[in-house]
Amino acid sequence: MKGKKRLLLIFSGIGMFVFLFSQCMEKPKEKVAATELSIAGAETCKQCHQKAYSDYLKDPHTHTSWPVTTDEVVKGGGGPKSAGFSFDEHLKIVIEKRKDGMYQVPYYDGEEGPARRFDIAIGSGKHAHTYGFWREDRLNQLQLTYFRSINEWTNSPGYPNRMFLQAIGKRCLECHTSYAKATNVQTGSLSIENSFDRKSIIYGIDCERCHGPAGKHVEFHINNPDDKSPKYVKLYKDLTRKQKIDACAVCHSGNDVESLKSSFAFKPGDDIAEYYHYNPGSFASAEPDVHGNQIGMLQGSQCFIKSNDMTCGSCHNAHKAEDNNLIAYSKKCISCHPTAKHSKKTLGNAMVNTNCINCHMPLKASKVITFQQAGHEGKSAYQLHTHRIAVY
Ligand code: HEC
Ligand code: HEC
Ligand code: HEC
Ligand code: HEC
Ligand code: HEC
Ligand code: HEC
Ligand code: HEC
């Protein structure tokens, strides 16, 4: 969104218009009508799209980032087994509740080090929550990450060393928030970090991140309640297969890319090539990583190559996660493969007619993300179902 004028238009629940200028507008003095770039906010959609809205409230996209405002730093109940993480007999980090929030506090041989507050969380917690704390307007990652599969605190993936500050850059937020205004700041002769306009951050991935700015759509339909044909909004059903894939590729084609411009500006219908330059071998390479690169994996599958119309939507409802329901996903396989030919040996497996996933999209460990558990020298794997559908 760099250099682009952007108008942030927010409608209040009652229908009164409140105009908020997020960044420089050409003529911000007088009230202006909504434009193609006006953002209305997810709350506004509720009144006319109740089903989409109530599904969205439960979807991991919605909860993939949030400001930490309560003591609940791990969502979904239960809570981690330990109250912190011990690196060795000298250093441990303890989770503590203090007057103004929750903190990660290091102790070196019992002596307290710099306490750092849980300010924001990244990750819905389906797999993990990792956290950031503010140093003025720069965001740094907290040392400990929560991992669901072991229900424990671990050393954050990729954290170079104990208590060394790792920055959370705008690239994380491009995939995990709906908007964040960032500028580059020189922090050393060779290092650049991002400084954020904290108030600009729209947490979670909301309606307009996937559907494009809808301020004008909302304005039109509020003023024309009898017109039931969609106006000023891109319809997914009118997109080509490539455009549909691109709309998910913004965040699901891996991080091994060169950003050409901020992906916050991406709207359905845009060509992903305007945003990313894929390094040779990444997008469709033989070895894309299971983490964050579902498209690279899927594109190597015969299902994708040989069918004319397979998209992410063939198996996923973008509004509503299936919650690990592998039987429900298998119904999508069966819709294209009503008569899969299995050998006698395979047919002996009790799951063969109901759960196709464990055999054809087995769990694979990410090569880029591993996590360290307390008391273990080795690293544990982060496992995801591969999108390279095949006979394994
Ligand atoms: C005042 C009512 C109203 C509001 C508010 C509203 N819409 Fe709509 N929207 C409609 C109508 C009417 C249609 C056309 C009928 C339909 O598809 O439901 C529509 C259609 C759509 C479609 C196309 C559906 C399709 O057929 O593919 C999308 C996407 C959409 N709206 C997104 C949004 C988003 C995002 C918001 C909030 C920012 C929003 N709408 C707010 C009235 C509204
Ligand atoms: C992760 C991306 C994503 C998010 C977030 C999202 N949508 Fe959608 N939405 C889609 C896709 C993709 C389709 C097309 C589904 C299809 O055609 O199979 C769609 C379809 C729709 C439709 C058409 C009718 C339907 O349900 O198929 C409406 C209306 C709509 N979305 C509104 C919303 C609203 C309102 C929100 C926020 C409350 C929202 N969407 C959030 C991706 C998203
Ligand atoms: C290219 C987009 C992209 C970028 C950049 C990105 N992520 Fe992710 N992230 C994803 C996707 C997609 C998932 C969903 C599962 C998967 O593919 O691993 C995810 C999953 C996660 C999860 C687990 C969420 C859960 O509970 O399921 C965490 C935590 C996370 N990312 C943190 C980060 C951090 C911190 C950064 C920056 C260092 C970052 N991500 C950068 C796309 C991205
Ligand atoms: C949109 C339709 C479609 C869907 C959905 C679909 N497939 Fe396929 N699949 C195909 C086509 C087309 C082929 C190629 C068949 C051929 O080569 O004759 C294929 C091939 C395969 C093969 C053979 C792969 C190989 O390398 O030879 C397997 C196994 C398979 N699919 C399993 C699945 C499973 C499991 C699912 C669900 C997770 C699934 N498919 C979903 C269309 C689909
Ligand atoms: C703005 C970035 C972004 C866009 C656009 C986006 N996603 Fe995601 N998606 C994510 C992130 C981040 C996660 C991890 C959420 C979490 O924290 O668990 C995710 C998670 C998912 C999941 C796993 C959650 C679940 O349902 O179990 C699916 C499936 C998914 N996305 C499909 C899609 C599809 C299909 C599209 C295109 C219509 C799409 N996404 C568009 C960023 C995005
Ligand atoms: C043939 C069916 C199929 C297609 C097509 C498909 N997926 Fe999936 N996807 C699955 C299944 C099955 C899972 C595993 C569900 C689970 O673990 O809850 C899954 C899981 C995911 C996850 C969650 C990973 C995790 O473990 O949290 C993401 C993200 C995702 N898919 C994104 C996409 C995107 C983006 C596309 C389009 C490029 C896509 N999928 C196309 C079947 C499919
Ligand atoms: C126990 C593991 C297992 C399960 C479960 C399983 N498959 Fe297979 N599948 C295989 C193996 C192994 C092959 C190779 C042929 C063989 O040895 O049976 C295969 C072959 C295939 C093929 C390629 C052969 C052809 O007909 O073109 C398709 C398509 C396929 N499976 C789809 C499915 C679908 C759909 C489901 C779920 C309803 C499913 N499979 C469940 C293991 C499995």
Automatic annotation (TrEMBL):
InterPro entries: Cyt_c-552/4, Multihaem_cyt_sf, Multiheme_Cytochr_ET. CDD domains: Cytochrom_C3. Transmembrane segments: none annotated. Residues 169-212 form the Cytochrome c-552/4 domain. Keywords: Signal. Pfam families: Cytochrome_C554. This is Cytochrome c-552/4 domain-containing protein. It comes from Pedobacter psychroterrae.
